[in-house]
Amino acid sequence: MLHILYIIAITAEAMTAALSAGRRDMDWVGVCIIAWVTALGGGTVRNVLFGHYPMSWVEHPEYLVITAAAALFAAFIASIMTRLKKLFLYLDALGLVVFTIIGCQVAQQIHLPYLIVLFSGMITGCAGGVLRDVLCNEVPFLFRKEIYASAAIVTGSVYIGIEHFHGSEMLATVFAAIVGLTLRLLSIRFEWHMPKFVYRDEWH
């Protein structure tokens, strides 16, 4: 089930990434690259940091085909995509919790400490979006007031806590996904935001 949700998540992430590329007038190659970076970048950054190989897209090259096809399809139906913004926000929330849980599981498989397991989940959930925004010359979504990284941290914490005390990976996965998805969707619905740090004084 988690694998099926992962395919859905990378497809949705690739489609929304295509729109970001389109806003920067990129060609078809650029659209595919931004889609790959967004959908697969989080796991790639995690694996590079922890020396965990092979990359998921090397082991499963079909992920590159799926995300590229999704991105190009989104480019063709861009006018329709704008009317489905809320749906893709929900799918993005699903992707966040799925990527986070997978990131936690990968870190556990290589026997990393709990804090690093949590860090791995957050990186996997959020790094792809940060790379997308940097390449598209935008302030990363993660660093703005949205409850995004916080939702990843909560998801990872719930997953680690339940598995540590209960020992059931299935229960931890399901409950963490429900809690993380609920938090992210509620933050979208009620426009919950993290407090911002605003500093305007000059030092010279």
TrEMBL record:
Keywords: Cell membrane, Membrane, Transmembrane, Transmembrane helix. Signal peptide: none annotated. Residues 4-77, 90-162 form the Glycine transporter domain. The keyword Ribonucleoprotein does not apply. The keyword Cell membrane applies. Pfam families: Gly_transporter. It is a multi-pass membrane protein. The chain crosses the membrane at residues 28-51, 63-80, 87-108, 114-135, 147-165, 171-190. It is found in: Cell membrane. GO terms for cellular component: plasma membrane. Its main location: membrane. It comes from the Bacteria. Belongs to the UPF0126 family. This is Uncharacterized membrane protein YeiH.
